[in-house]
Design a protein that fits this description.
single chain; about 280 residues; mainly alpha; MetI-like fold; 2 domains; MetI-like; sulfate transport; transport; transmembrane
Length: about 280
Amino acid sequence: MSEAPRPKRRFRQRTVIPGFGLTLGYTLTCLGVIVLLPLATLVAKAAGLGPAGIWAVATDPRVASALRVSFGVSLLAALTASIFGGIVAWVLTRYDFPGRKLADAVVDLPFALPTAVAGIALASLYAPNGAVGSQLAKIGIEAAYTPVGIFIAMVFIGLPFAVRTVQPLIAEIDKEVEEASAILGASRIATLTRVVLPPLIPAVLTGFALAFARGVGEYGSIIFIAGNLPYVSEIAPLLIVIKLSEFDYEGASAIAVIMLAISFVTLLAINLIQAWSRRRFGYV
């Protein structure tokens, strides 16, 4: 007996709402023009230096120091924002208290606030003669014009990402599951680590990635509080601006490509960990 012919796989399944071809073309055009074309132009501009020239830029002591500050502080700030953002999201979602809606709205202020305004406000607050900076100076901590100030600014702009990505999932966790865990004799720590945290891990990683990406590319809110001292508190985006002001377009493009490559590898690693956590804990 001959086997029945297998049905051909169709690239596109019929849907109730038409317009697949038009919307796919629109999507590919937008991605190509808005995302891929500028990145390709950037890489092409940096390619004028050649591999040896790009390596020379990457190994320049000042550039290497700026990259360490940008990426190192961004990782630390994203981690801090993820931890405290999760706590803030839990409080805003699970507890009802006076001013909760106001506090929930304040979380979004870094989204709406112009970065320069945020930078000036942070610099004024944490400067040696500022309200907070003067108190920190008494215990030997200098915040403004140091990497500590960069860290504070990056946590400020990254916190909303950490809160908003976790908050919807916290709202979906059924309280009865926690009560069942307590009835079965689990301690609070066991309930937290085995019942509450597993479904939140993918969202926490997403918030971490968003906060990290925002911190790496941030400029306006950092330059006012960083001090911009070479080898101390100079960030890579500022170095790109300096290169552009010196008409060194290839050098600026090379630094940008290096940042792009490091960011891509870092975000790829975060996404792989996120995919593993989804398979491991069974949540999407």
